[in-house]
C-alpha cells in the first residue's frame, strides 16, 4: 500500500502471474503474485478438469523461474 496525494491509502495493484489481471489482493509465490480469484480457482479445480493442467503448467513455470534466480 502507498499513500496518495489526498492523504488516503492507495492499494498497489499487481499483475497476476496466472490470469495477467491487475489486482491488489492475493498471495506471493516464488516472487510472483497470484490474485485471490486464481488462488481460489486453483484450490477448487478438480484434477480431472482441463483447467487443472493449465494451472499446473503455470506453476511449473514459476518453479523454473525460481530455480534460475
Report on this structure.
This protein has helices at residues 36-44, 50-68, and strands at 2-3, 9-10, 14-15, 22-23, 26-29, 32-35. The chain is an alpha+beta fold. It has one domain (2-68). A two-stranded antiparallel ribbon has the order 1-2. The model has no long low-confidence stretch (mean pLDDT 87).
Looking at this protein, list some descriptive labels.
alpha+beta; 69 residues; 41% helix; two-stranded antiparallel ribbon
List the strand order in the largest sheet.
Answer: 1-2
Shape: flat
Pairing-aware structural class of the strands and helices? alpha+beta
Q: What Rg is obtained from the alpha carbons, in whole angstroms?
A: 15 Å
Number of strands: 6
Number of domains as seen in the coordinates:
1
Please state the average pLDDT score.
87
Q: Main sheet, how many strands, which sense, barrel?
A: 2 strands, antiparallel
Low-pLDDT runs: none
Helix percent reads: 40-55%
| First-last Cα distance | 26 Å
Write a short abstract of this structure.
Pfam families: Gin (PF10764). This is Inhibitor of sigma-G Gin. The chain has 69 residues and is an alpha+beta fold.
Write the layout of secondary structure elements.
Blueprint: E1 2-3, E2 9-10, E3 14-15, E4 22-23, E5 26-29, E6 32-35, H1 36-44, H2 50-68
Antiparallel strand pairs: 1-2, 3-4, 5-6
